[in-house]
Amino acid sequence: MKTFYTALFTIIFGSTYISSQALPTQSPTATEAYLEQIANYEFEAALQTADAMLTDAANCKASARFWLGTVAFADGDLQRAEQYFADGLALQESGGRAKYWLSHAIGKTGWSQPAEMLSFIKRSQQLPAINPRYVQKIAYVMVQKLDAPTGENGSGPRISMEMTPGQQKHGMLSLNILRRYLQLFSNGQVDLQISSYPIDRTARKVDNRNIVTLSSLEPWDLEPSLLMNSAIADNDLLFIAFPRKGGNAIATIGAFSLLPGIISSPTRTGMYIPSGWLTMINFPQIFHEYMHTVEYAMVWAGMKEFHATSHGNDEERVEALTHIPTAKTGETDWAEYFFARTIPEFAAELETKNHNNGYEYIFGLSSKHKHSLPSSAMQRLYERLQRHGSKSLLEARDNAEKLMTSAYSAYNKDQKPALAASRALEAFKTFPYNSGYYGKTKWFVENSKLKKAELETMLAQLNEEASQAGIVTNVRDIQIGNH
Description:
This protein has 17 helices and 10 strands. The chain is an alpha/beta fold. Strands 1, 2, 3, 4, 5, 6, 7 and 10 form an 8-stranded mixed β-sheet that branches. β2 (134-149) and β3 form a beta hairpin. α2 (30-39) runs antiparallel to α3 (43-51). The N and C termini lie close together (9 Å).
Protein backbone atom coordinates (compact mmCIF):
# COMPACT_ATOMS: atom_id res chain seq x y z
CA MET A 1 0.00 0.00 0.00
CA LYS A 2 1.93 2.98 -1.28
CA THR A 3 1.28 6.46 -0.05
CA PHE A 4 2.37 9.91 -1.13
CA TYR A 5 4.99 9.94 1.63
CA THR A 6 6.41 6.57 0.55
CA ALA A 7 6.80 7.82 -2.99
CA LEU A 8 8.33 11.10 -1.89
CA PHE A 9 10.77 9.96 0.75
CA THR A 10 12.25 6.83 -0.72
CA ILE A 11 14.22 9.13 -3.03
CA ILE A 12 17.91 8.73 -2.18
CA PHE A 13 20.35 11.62 -2.14
CA GLY A 14 24.12 11.49 -1.88
CA SER A 15 27.40 12.99 -2.87
CA THR A 16 30.98 11.98 -3.50
CA TYR A 17 33.02 15.14 -3.18
CA ILE A 18 35.41 14.05 -0.41
CA SER A 19 38.48 11.98 -1.20
CA SER A 20 40.45 10.12 1.44
CA GLN A 21 43.99 8.78 1.56
CA ALA A 22 44.40 5.04 1.16
CA LEU A 23 46.21 3.49 4.11
CA PRO A 24 48.79 0.81 3.20
CA THR A 25 48.83 -2.62 4.77
CA GLN A 26 52.64 -2.99 4.70
CA SER A 27 55.01 -0.85 6.73
CA PRO A 28 58.58 -0.93 5.42
CA THR A 29 59.06 2.77 6.23
CA ALA A 30 58.35 4.82 9.33
CA THR A 31 55.60 6.77 7.57
CA GLU A 32 53.88 3.61 6.39
CA ALA A 33 54.20 2.12 9.87
CA TYR A 34 52.54 5.26 11.21
CA LEU A 35 49.68 5.01 8.72
CA GLU A 36 49.13 1.35 9.51
CA GLN A 37 48.92 2.19 13.22
CA ILE A 38 46.39 4.93 12.48
CA ALA A 39 44.34 2.51 10.35
CA ASN A 40 44.41 0.01 13.22
CA TYR A 41 43.28 2.69 15.71
CA GLU A 42 46.63 2.50 17.56
CA PHE A 43 47.04 6.23 18.15
CA GLU A 44 49.45 6.13 21.10
CA ALA A 45 51.79 3.86 19.16
CA ALA A 46 51.43 6.16 16.13
CA LEU A 47 52.48 9.13 18.26
CA GLN A 48 55.61 7.30 19.36
CA THR A 49 56.39 6.36 15.75
CA ALA A 50 55.90 9.95 14.58
CA ASP A 51 58.01 11.48 17.34
CA ALA A 52 60.86 9.07 16.53
CA MET A 53 60.96 10.08 12.83
CA LEU A 54 64.16 11.77 11.75
CA THR A 55 62.43 13.23 8.69
CA ASP A 56 58.71 14.00 8.73
CA ALA A 57 57.65 15.59 5.44
CA ALA A 58 54.01 14.64 6.05
CA ASN A 59 54.13 16.18 9.57
CA CYS A 60 52.90 13.00 11.22
CA LYS A 61 53.90 14.54 14.54
CA ALA A 62 51.06 17.03 14.15
CA SER A 63 48.44 14.61 12.82
CA ALA A 64 49.19 12.09 15.61
CA ARG A 65 48.24 14.76 18.12
CA PHE A 66 45.08 15.61 16.21
CA TRP A 67 44.03 11.94 16.33
CA LEU A 68 44.59 11.73 20.07
CA GLY A 69 42.87 15.06 20.59
CA THR A 70 39.87 13.80 18.67
CA VAL A 71 39.61 10.72 20.89
CA ALA A 72 39.82 12.92 23.99
CA PHE A 73 37.12 15.22 22.57
CA ALA A 74 34.86 12.24 21.86
CA ASP A 75 35.43 10.96 25.39
CA GLY A 76 34.61 14.35 26.92
CA ASP A 77 38.17 14.94 28.20
CA LEU A 78 38.12 18.51 26.90
CA GLN A 79 41.28 19.86 28.56
CA ARG A 80 43.34 16.98 27.19
CA ALA A 81 41.72 17.44 23.76
CA GLU A 82 42.55 21.16 23.81
CA GLN A 83 46.20 20.48 24.64
CA TYR A 84 46.62 17.92 21.85
CA PHE A 85 45.07 20.22 19.26
CA ALA A 86 47.06 23.23 20.41
CA ASP A 87 50.29 21.21 20.23
CA GLY A 88 49.37 19.87 16.79
CA LEU A 89 48.61 23.33 15.44
CA ALA A 90 51.94 24.61 16.80
CA LEU A 91 53.69 21.78 14.95
CA GLN A 92 51.79 22.73 11.77
CA GLU A 93 53.05 26.28 12.05
CA SER A 94 56.65 25.08 12.19
CA GLY A 95 56.48 21.93 10.07
CA GLY A 96 53.74 22.57 7.51
CA ARG A 97 50.33 21.05 6.92
CA ALA A 98 49.66 17.64 8.41
CA LYS A 99 49.21 15.54 5.28
CA TYR A 100 47.37 12.71 7.00
CA TRP A 101 44.70 14.79 8.65
CA LEU A 102 41.55 16.57 7.66
CA SER A 103 42.18 19.27 5.07
CA HIS A 104 39.14 20.38 3.14
CA ALA A 105 38.12 23.64 1.48
CA ILE A 106 41.17 25.67 2.44
CA GLY A 107 40.20 29.29 3.12
CA LYS A 108 36.69 28.41 4.28
CA THR A 109 35.36 27.81 7.75
CA GLY A 110 32.74 25.20 8.43
CA TRP A 111 34.66 22.09 7.38
CA SER A 112 36.14 20.95 10.71
CA GLN A 113 39.78 21.72 10.07
CA PRO A 114 42.07 21.61 13.16
CA ALA A 115 41.76 25.26 14.24
CA GLU A 116 37.98 25.01 13.96
CA MET A 117 37.88 21.79 15.96
CA LEU A 118 40.00 23.45 18.63
CA SER A 119 37.47 26.27 18.85
CA PHE A 120 34.66 23.72 19.26
CA ILE A 121 36.61 21.99 22.03
CA LYS A 122 37.13 25.26 23.88
CA ARG A 123 33.51 26.29 23.53
CA SER A 124 32.32 22.87 24.68
CA GLN A 125 34.02 23.54 28.01
CA GLN A 126 31.51 26.34 28.56
CA LEU A 127 28.45 24.21 27.91
CA PRO A 128 26.12 23.71 30.87
CA ALA A 129 25.26 20.19 31.93
CA ILE A 130 23.69 18.40 28.97
CA ASN A 131 19.93 18.16 29.50
CA PRO A 132 18.59 17.41 26.03
CA ARG A 133 15.06 17.87 24.83
CA TYR A 134 15.58 14.79 22.69
CA VAL A 135 18.24 12.08 22.38
CA GLN A 136 18.32 10.87 18.79
CA LYS A 137 19.11 7.17 18.68
CA ILE A 138 21.53 5.93 16.01
CA ALA A 139 22.12 2.29 15.09
CA TYR A 140 25.70 1.78 13.87
CA VAL A 141 25.16 -1.19 11.55
CA MET A 142 28.42 -2.79 10.41
CA VAL A 143 28.25 -5.15 7.43
CA GLN A 144 31.32 -7.32 7.93
CA LYS A 145 31.89 -8.68 4.41
CA LEU A 146 31.22 -7.73 0.81
CA ASP A 147 31.69 -10.05 -2.16
CA ALA A 148 29.79 -8.70 -5.14
CA PRO A 149 30.20 -7.78 -8.81
CA THR A 150 29.92 -4.12 -9.74
CA GLY A 151 28.64 -2.25 -12.76
CA GLU A 152 25.47 -2.50 -14.81
CA ASN A 153 23.91 -5.95 -14.32
CA GLY A 154 27.00 -7.08 -12.42
CA SER A 155 29.29 -6.78 -15.45
CA GLY A 156 32.05 -4.84 -13.68
CA PRO A 157 34.97 -5.86 -11.43
CA ARG A 158 34.18 -7.79 -8.29
CA ILE A 159 34.57 -6.22 -4.85
CA SER A 160 35.72 -8.71 -2.23
CA MET A 161 36.55 -7.11 1.12
CA GLU A 162 36.08 -7.39 4.86
CA MET A 163 35.68 -4.55 7.34
CA THR A 164 38.56 -4.37 9.79
CA PRO A 165 38.25 -3.83 13.56
CA GLY A 166 40.16 -0.57 13.12
CA GLN A 167 37.63 0.71 10.59
CA GLN A 168 34.77 -0.13 12.94
CA LYS A 169 36.45 1.87 15.71
CA HIS A 170 37.08 4.81 13.35
CA GLY A 171 33.38 4.85 12.49
CA MET A 172 32.40 4.98 16.16
CA LEU A 173 34.89 7.81 16.75
CA SER A 174 33.40 9.83 13.89
CA LEU A 175 29.89 9.30 15.24
CA ASN A 176 30.94 10.42 18.72
CA ILE A 177 32.47 13.59 17.26
CA LEU A 178 29.17 14.18 15.47
CA ARG A 179 27.53 13.83 18.86
CA ARG A 180 29.82 16.46 20.41
CA TYR A 181 29.11 18.85 17.55
CA LEU A 182 25.34 18.55 17.95
CA GLN A 183 25.55 19.03 21.70
CA LEU A 184 27.51 22.23 21.12
CA PHE A 185 25.49 23.57 18.20
CA SER A 186 22.17 22.96 19.95
CA ASN A 187 23.40 24.24 23.33
CA GLY A 188 22.68 20.85 24.80
CA GLN A 189 19.14 20.53 23.43
CA VAL A 190 19.98 17.62 21.09
CA ASP A 191 22.10 14.60 21.99
CA LEU A 192 22.90 11.30 20.30
CA GLN A 193 22.84 7.74 21.60
CA ILE A 194 24.91 5.37 19.45
CA SER A 195 24.52 1.59 19.59
CA SER A 196 26.55 -0.99 17.63
CA TYR A 197 24.98 -3.69 15.45
CA PRO A 198 27.67 -5.82 13.76
CA ILE A 199 26.29 -8.17 11.08
CA ASP A 200 28.57 -11.14 10.45
CA ARG A 201 27.22 -11.82 7.00
CA THR A 202 28.41 -11.35 3.41
CA ALA A 203 26.65 -8.86 1.13
CA ARG A 204 26.36 -10.27 -2.39
CA LYS A 205 25.02 -7.25 -4.25
CA VAL A 206 25.67 -3.54 -4.71
CA ASP A 207 23.57 -0.96 -6.54
CA ASN A 208 24.63 1.15 -9.52
CA ARG A 209 26.64 3.40 -7.18
CA ASN A 210 28.34 0.39 -5.58
CA ILE A 211 26.43 0.98 -2.35
CA VAL A 212 25.75 -2.25 -0.49
CA THR A 213 22.28 -3.80 -0.85
CA LEU A 214 21.35 -4.89 2.66
CA SER A 215 18.75 -7.40 1.49
CA SER A 216 21.53 -9.33 -0.32
CA LEU A 217 23.15 -10.46 2.93
CA GLU A 218 23.94 -14.19 2.91
CA PRO A 219 22.85 -16.20 4.60
CA TRP A 220 19.78 -14.17 5.46
CA ASP A 221 18.20 -16.19 8.20
CA LEU A 222 16.67 -15.38 11.57
CA GLU A 223 19.83 -13.74 12.94
CA PRO A 224 20.04 -10.72 10.57
CA SER A 225 16.26 -10.34 10.79
CA LEU A 226 16.45 -10.14 14.57
CA LEU A 227 19.37 -7.71 14.41
CA MET A 228 17.68 -5.40 11.91
CA ASN A 229 14.43 -5.72 13.81
CA SER A 230 16.13 -4.55 17.00
CA ALA A 231 17.94 -1.73 15.18
CA ILE A 232 14.65 -0.48 13.77
CA ALA A 233 12.69 -0.85 17.01
CA ASP A 234 15.20 1.04 19.14
CA ASN A 235 16.60 3.69 16.78
CA ASP A 236 15.67 6.69 14.67
CA LEU A 237 18.55 6.54 12.19
CA LEU A 238 20.61 3.68 10.74
CA PHE A 239 24.29 4.47 10.05
CA ILE A 240 25.27 1.60 7.77
CA ALA A 241 28.97 0.95 7.16
CA PHE A 242 30.06 -1.59 4.57
CA PRO A 243 33.43 -2.83 3.23
CA ARG A 244 34.74 -0.63 0.44
CA LYS A 245 37.68 1.72 0.02
CA GLY A 246 35.41 4.59 -0.95
CA GLY A 247 33.55 5.99 -3.92
CA ASN A 248 30.06 6.92 -2.82
CA ALA A 249 28.13 7.72 0.33
CA ILE A 250 24.41 8.41 0.53
CA ALA A 251 21.66 9.45 2.91
CA THR A 252 18.12 8.17 2.68
CA ILE A 253 14.71 8.04 4.32
CA GLY A 254 12.36 5.12 3.93
CA ALA A 255 11.89 1.48 4.90
CA PHE A 256 14.55 -1.17 5.54
CA SER A 257 14.23 -4.90 4.89
CA LEU A 258 13.46 -7.07 7.90
CA LEU A 259 12.67 -10.21 5.90
CA PRO A 260 13.69 -9.40 2.31
CA GLY A 261 10.83 -9.45 -0.15
CA ILE A 262 8.26 -10.04 2.57
CA ILE A 263 8.32 -7.40 5.33
CA SER A 264 9.95 -4.02 5.77
CA SER A 265 10.29 -1.58 8.62
CA PRO A 266 8.51 1.65 9.40
CA THR A 267 10.20 4.78 8.09
CA ARG A 268 13.68 5.58 9.36
CA THR A 269 16.46 7.86 8.15
CA GLY A 270 19.70 6.26 7.07
CA MET A 271 23.29 6.82 5.95
CA TYR A 272 25.46 4.42 3.93
CA ILE A 273 29.20 5.00 4.35
CA PRO A 274 31.99 2.81 2.87
CA SER A 275 34.44 1.52 5.47
CA GLY A 276 37.39 3.35 3.93
CA TRP A 277 35.60 6.64 4.62
CA LEU A 278 34.80 6.10 8.28
CA THR A 279 37.81 8.05 9.56
CA MET A 280 37.97 11.67 10.68
CA ILE A 281 39.86 12.47 7.47
CA ASN A 282 36.48 12.04 5.78
CA PHE A 283 34.38 13.63 8.52
CA PRO A 284 32.98 16.42 6.27
CA GLN A 285 31.35 13.70 4.15
CA ILE A 286 29.87 11.98 7.20
CA PHE A 287 28.60 15.29 8.55
CA HIS A 288 27.17 16.17 5.14
CA GLU A 289 25.19 12.94 4.92
CA TYR A 290 23.93 13.38 8.48
CA MET A 291 22.67 16.87 7.62
CA HIS A 292 20.76 15.34 4.71
CA THR A 293 18.92 13.20 7.26
CA VAL A 294 18.13 16.36 9.22
CA GLU A 295 16.70 17.83 6.02
CA TYR A 296 14.46 14.81 5.53
CA ALA A 297 13.26 14.90 9.14
CA MET A 298 12.53 18.64 9.05
CA VAL A 299 10.70 18.46 5.73
CA TRP A 300 8.65 15.48 6.86
CA ALA A 301 7.79 17.29 10.09
CA GLY A 302 6.37 20.13 8.02
CA MET A 303 9.11 22.69 7.26
CA LYS A 304 9.07 22.18 3.51
CA GLU A 305 11.66 24.81 2.60
CA PHE A 306 14.37 23.53 4.96
CA HIS A 307 17.74 22.85 3.35
CA ALA A 308 21.10 22.47 5.09
CA THR A 309 23.64 21.02 2.64
CA SER A 310 25.59 22.07 -0.40
CA HIS A 311 25.49 20.65 -3.88
CA GLY A 312 26.64 23.57 -6.01
CA ASN A 313 23.72 25.99 -6.37
CA ASP A 314 22.16 24.66 -3.17
CA GLU A 315 24.31 27.18 -1.32
CA GLU A 316 21.88 29.85 -2.50
CA ARG A 317 19.06 28.05 -0.69
CA VAL A 318 21.11 27.81 2.50
CA GLU A 319 22.09 31.47 2.33
CA ALA A 320 18.46 32.49 1.90
CA LEU A 321 17.60 30.66 5.13
CA THR A 322 20.61 31.66 7.24
CA HIS A 323 21.82 34.95 5.69
CA ILE A 324 25.32 33.51 6.17
CA PRO A 325 27.70 34.20 3.22
CA THR A 326 28.22 30.66 1.97
CA ALA A 327 31.18 31.61 -0.23
CA LYS A 328 33.32 31.82 2.92
CA THR A 329 31.60 29.24 5.12
CA GLY A 330 30.67 25.57 5.13
CA GLU A 331 28.26 23.02 6.47
CA THR A 332 29.19 23.06 10.16
CA ASP A 333 28.71 26.85 10.14
CA TRP A 334 25.28 26.40 8.67
CA ALA A 335 24.41 23.53 10.99
CA GLU A 336 25.32 25.66 13.98
CA TYR A 337 22.84 28.30 12.83
CA PHE A 338 20.12 25.74 12.23
CA PHE A 339 20.54 23.92 15.54
CA ALA A 340 20.75 27.17 17.50
CA ARG A 341 17.89 29.00 15.79
CA THR A 342 15.83 27.34 13.07
CA ILE A 343 15.33 23.94 14.68
CA PRO A 344 14.37 25.20 18.18
CA GLU A 345 12.01 27.77 16.65
CA PHE A 346 10.35 25.08 14.55
CA ALA A 347 10.19 22.70 17.53
CA ALA A 348 8.45 25.41 19.56
CA GLU A 349 6.01 25.99 16.70
CA LEU A 350 5.22 22.26 16.59
CA GLU A 351 4.51 22.33 20.33
CA THR A 352 1.80 24.93 19.73
CA LYS A 353 0.17 22.36 17.42
CA ASN A 354 -0.44 19.74 20.10
CA HIS A 355 2.95 18.01 19.87
CA ASN A 356 4.30 17.51 23.37
CA ASN A 357 7.95 17.69 22.31
CA GLY A 358 8.82 19.37 19.03
CA TYR A 359 12.35 17.94 19.00
CA GLU A 360 11.00 14.43 19.39
CA TYR A 361 8.50 15.04 16.60
CA ILE A 362 11.35 16.07 14.29
CA PHE A 363 14.05 13.54 15.18
CA GLY A 364 12.17 10.76 17.00
CA LEU A 365 11.13 8.49 14.15
CA SER A 366 11.26 5.48 16.48
CA SER A 367 8.56 7.05 18.66
CA LYS A 368 6.60 8.76 15.87
CA HIS A 369 6.54 5.57 13.76
CA LYS A 370 6.74 2.81 16.32
CA HIS A 371 7.79 -0.67 15.36
CA SER A 372 5.33 -3.26 16.62
CA LEU A 373 7.32 -6.45 15.90
CA PRO A 374 9.36 -7.66 18.89
CA SER A 375 11.87 -10.48 18.49
CA SER A 376 9.22 -13.01 19.56
CA ALA A 377 6.98 -11.97 16.64
CA MET A 378 9.90 -12.24 14.22
CA GLN A 379 10.62 -15.75 15.48
CA ARG A 380 6.99 -16.73 14.98
CA LEU A 381 7.11 -15.30 11.47
CA TYR A 382 10.13 -17.50 10.68
CA GLU A 383 8.32 -20.52 12.10
CA ARG A 384 5.42 -19.75 9.79
CA LEU A 385 7.87 -19.36 6.90
CA GLN A 386 9.39 -22.77 7.63
CA ARG A 387 5.98 -24.44 7.90
CA HIS A 388 4.27 -22.89 4.90
CA GLY A 389 7.00 -21.39 2.70
CA SER A 390 7.55 -17.91 1.31
CA LYS A 391 4.79 -18.21 -1.31
CA SER A 392 2.17 -18.60 1.40
CA LEU A 393 3.55 -15.59 3.29
CA LEU A 394 3.60 -13.44 0.15
CA GLU A 395 0.01 -14.37 -0.69
CA ALA A 396 -1.09 -13.53 2.85
CA ARG A 397 0.78 -10.22 2.76
CA ASP A 398 -0.73 -9.23 -0.59
CA ASN A 399 -4.25 -10.19 0.49
CA ALA A 400 -3.86 -8.20 3.70
CA GLU A 401 -2.67 -5.20 1.73
CA LYS A 402 -5.77 -5.35 -0.47
CA LEU A 403 -8.00 -5.59 2.60
CA MET A 404 -6.33 -2.62 4.27
CA THR A 405 -6.62 -0.57 1.07
CA SER A 406 -10.33 -1.39 0.94
CA ALA A 407 -10.64 -0.31 4.60
CA TYR A 408 -9.34 3.13 3.64
CA SER A 409 -11.77 3.24 0.72
CA ALA A 410 -14.70 2.24 2.93
CA TYR A 411 -13.84 4.91 5.48
CA ASN A 412 -12.89 7.82 3.22
CA LYS A 413 -14.85 7.24 0.01
CA ASP A 414 -17.90 5.23 1.06
CA GLN A 415 -18.29 6.82 4.52
CA LYS A 416 -18.78 3.39 6.11
CA PRO A 417 -16.58 3.38 9.21
CA ALA A 418 -17.93 0.09 10.59
CA LEU A 419 -17.12 -1.69 7.33
CA ALA A 420 -13.67 -0.08 7.34
CA ALA A 421 -13.02 -1.44 10.84
CA SER A 422 -14.12 -4.93 9.81
CA ARG A 423 -11.86 -4.97 6.76
CA ALA A 424 -8.90 -3.59 8.71
CA LEU A 425 -9.33 -6.28 11.36
CA GLU A 426 -9.47 -8.94 8.65
CA ALA A 427 -6.25 -7.50 7.14
CA PHE A 428 -4.54 -7.74 10.51
CA LYS A 429 -5.70 -11.32 11.02
CA THR A 430 -4.48 -12.25 7.53
CA PHE A 431 -0.98 -10.82 7.98
CA PRO A 432 -0.26 -9.18 11.34
CA TYR A 433 3.46 -8.69 10.59
CA ASN A 434 3.15 -5.42 8.72
CA SER A 435 4.53 -3.06 11.37
CA GLY A 436 1.80 -0.46 10.87
CA TYR A 437 -1.25 -2.71 10.79
CA TYR A 438 -1.98 -2.89 14.50
CA GLY A 439 -2.08 0.90 14.95
CA LYS A 440 -4.14 1.40 11.81
CA THR A 441 -6.63 -1.32 12.71
CA LYS A 442 -7.00 0.02 16.24
CA TRP A 443 -7.75 3.47 14.84
CA PHE A 444 -10.38 2.14 12.44
CA VAL A 445 -12.07 0.17 15.22
CA GLU A 446 -12.08 3.08 17.66
CA ASN A 447 -13.54 5.33 14.96
CA SER A 448 -16.03 2.77 13.66
CA LYS A 449 -19.09 4.41 15.29
CA LEU A 450 -20.11 0.96 16.49
CA LYS A 451 -22.07 0.58 19.68
CA LYS A 452 -19.95 0.22 22.80
CA ALA A 453 -20.39 -3.54 23.16
CA GLU A 454 -19.58 -4.22 19.50
CA LEU A 455 -16.58 -1.90 19.61
CA GLU A 456 -15.20 -3.58 22.74
CA THR A 457 -15.69 -7.01 21.18
CA MET A 458 -13.80 -5.99 18.07
CA LEU A 459 -10.96 -4.47 20.11
CA ALA A 460 -10.75 -7.68 22.14
CA GLN A 461 -10.48 -9.69 18.91
CA LEU A 462 -7.74 -7.39 17.67
CA ASN A 463 -5.74 -7.71 20.88
CA GLU A 464 -6.19 -11.47 20.96
CA GLU A 465 -4.86 -11.74 17.39
CA ALA A 466 -1.94 -9.47 18.33
CA SER A 467 -1.17 -11.61 21.37
CA GLN A 468 -1.17 -14.78 19.28
CA ALA A 469 1.23 -13.19 16.78
CA GLY A 470 3.45 -11.63 19.46
CA ILE A 471 2.72 -8.08 18.31
CA VAL A 472 3.43 -5.11 20.58
CA THR A 473 0.13 -3.34 21.27
CA ASN A 474 1.28 -0.13 22.97
CA VAL A 475 1.88 1.66 19.67
CA ARG A 476 0.93 5.31 19.56
CA ASP A 477 -2.54 6.07 18.21
CA ILE A 478 -2.44 7.48 14.70
CA GLN A 479 -4.62 9.73 12.59
CA ILE A 480 -5.75 8.00 9.43
CA GLY A 481 -7.27 10.84 7.41
CA ASN A 482 -7.34 10.39 3.65
CA HIS A 483 -5.24 7.53 2.33
